[in-house]
Design a protein that fits this description.
about 280 residues, alpha/beta, Elongation Factor Tu (Ef-tu), domain 3, 7-stranded mixed sheet, 5-stranded antiparallel sheet, 9 helices, 17 strands, globular, binds FE2/S2 (inorganic) cluster
Length: about 280
């Protein structure tokens, strides 16, 4: 069992939890993920490690209540315990040796983009941060990004915070003005990463993406997180989650991500029903 030490609401839809998990904290590196199960019969859900403190034995993740699994997780409070918390899984990010990097985050993907930006800064890189959200309410980790980025732009789809527009607008402005990067790191929804890759391909800038695919076992056995990368089959859980974005078949990944929508809607309804029943007791 893994105790929730702190639960912090970051905005109306996002929550950070700091979890007591000393063995995971000792080994976790930037870019790796964990798979948790809130209760005995809960769904397994993957989360990229947002922060870890080996000395304190604490691992932090950020979630949004989007499905049945996160709904069950959100019912736990400080002092409660998570049933399973397995990790660290996946390959760590390859961030050393880069001098000039643009970190692009979208929505909840910023929870993964931020530790990468922080690590790049620690390694001495010039870090240009571009983050985008649906609206001001969904904005996340702005102060943290500002602390680690040499240049930073926040955008929202509706202009309610920062500049109005998508992350590709700010990235295109920089690239067309002659800005050069060793690499662009893009983390967010699949359509966003696809659009960033289409843009950076035009400017011939190496681009790494983090593929948050459907995961079940996290060990390369179930095939749930299968992707096509450069025409070859890869598993996000063991070969990734980071890949060369110019080689990822995003259309296939987007089609696969929609495969379980009905199942997820049904599971969410069931979780709501159980939650209401529990409250009524
Ligand atoms: S989660 Fe099962 S193969 Fe990756």
């Amino acid at each position: 069992m893994y105790k929730i030490l702190r639960k912090t609401r970051l905005n109306p839809i996002s929550v950070r939890i700091d979890v007591e998990a000393p063995l995971v904290a000792r080994k976790a590196q930037v870019g790796q993920f964990i798979i948790l199960r809130a209760g005995e019969n809960s769904k397994r859900i993957p989360f990229t490690v947002m922060d870890s403190d080996a000395q304190a034995g604490v691992v932090s993740i950020i979630y949004q209540v989007l499905g049945a699994g996160t709904m069950e997780l959100d019912q736990l409070t400080e002092g409660d315990s998570i049933r399973d918390f397995v990790g660290p899984l996946g390959e760590p990010s390859r961030l050393s040796g880069l001098a000039r990097v643009c970190v692009v985050g979208g929505g909840l993907g910023c929870a993964i983009a931020y530790p990468s930006a922080k690590q790049l800064k620690r390694e001495g890189a010039y870090v240009d941060g571009i983050v985008g959200f649906r609206n001001a309410e969904a904005a996340l980790l702005e102060d943290e990004f500002r602390t680690v980025c040499d240049r930073f732009t926040l955008l929202t789809d509706d202009g309610s915070a920062g500049e109005k527009g998508f992350v590709t607008k700010a990235l295109e402005e920089r690239l067309s003005a002659g800005e050069r990067y060793d690499e662009v790191l893009a983390i967010g929804p699949l359509p966003m990463m696809k659009a960033v890759c289409a843009l950076t391909r035009k400017y011939n800038v190496k681009t790494t993406v983090s593929m948050n695919a459907i995961m079940v076992d996290g060990t390369g056995m179930c095939g749930g997180c299968r992707l096509s990368v450069n025409g070859q089959m890869k598993f996000a859980c063991v070969d990734g989650p980071e890949f060369d974005g110019h080689q990822v078949d995003f259309d296939e990944a987007i089609a696969r991500s929609g495969m379980y929508r009905d199942f997820e809607a049904h599971a969410r309804e069931e979780a709501c029903r159980l939650y209401e029943k529990e409250k009524a007791r």
